[in-house]
Specification:
The chain has helices at 2-38, 40-57, 84-92, 109-115, 129-141, 219-229, 244-247, 250-269, and strands at residues 60-65, 74-78, 96-100, 119-121, 145-148, 174-176, 183-185, 188-198, 201-202, 232-238, 282-284. With 288 residues, the protein is an alpha/beta fold. Strand 8 (188-198) and strand 9 (201-202) form a beta hairpin. It is globular. The termini are far apart.
Amino acid sequence: MNMKRSSDMNGLRAGWILLVFFTITPPLMVFQWVLLRVAPRQAVRFPHFYHRNLCRLLQGRIHIRGEPAAEGACLITANHCSWLDIVVLSAVRPLSFVAKREVGTWPFFGSLARLQRTIFVDRDRRSSTATFKTVMQSRLRAGDTLVLFPEGTSTDGNRVLEFKSALMGAAEATYQGSAKGTETAVPVQPVTVAYTKMHGLPLGRHERPVLSWYGDMELAPHLWAALKRGPFDAVVQFHQPVSLSSLGNRKALAAHCEHEVRSGLVALLAGRENAVSDDLDRESPPAD
């Protein structure tokens, strides 16, 4: 009886979240559409505000380790294990994503991605890599922060796959620095995302895939199951920014970022957060 009651309560919780989400999101999508046309600077920041509040709705606590690069031009290279990564990273700072082309065709969620100025790339057409790299460089030169998932796919949250270097060449871009007339290399910041707790209890290796969406999982059933499970804790570890020129080439850059992100994930999942942090214990999203 208690198990049935708990299941019913979890279902009510998930239903309430979806009801609120689908009530508030469509009008906010229209608002963002208007901002993109009349107030582009505000349109960059509004998804950050939206995802901060969405994270509150999901009862997600985000713990920040390390120091994010200053707002502005930055290429973030992060591990990828869930649709939650989009919510979590966007709740931390204003940014846009680089995603596979198929995301743009998804009903509803594809529209959300386009409204956040996502760059859609066709990973199956190697001949188009130069075109997408040019688009990314243009956005970086304009001062955007872009998130690239160099694994090229999502995982179960317990590991980091090899980082592909093809789009790392976008970091060749420079942007106008604070001093007039100066050009500054775009910083590349490795970032580790780890899901560490649910209901305040540590997640083990076998439980973590509850929050991970990977392989051939269908989105709707996974979304419903994750919402039913309850509040979660995520840790976002910002590693030291580097530049492509300091490491020599894009393959070396990809290898460095992969090492930093993998080391961070191992430490975070083992509970050794201080081994990769500067003892910052800020929680995001903060109160307005």
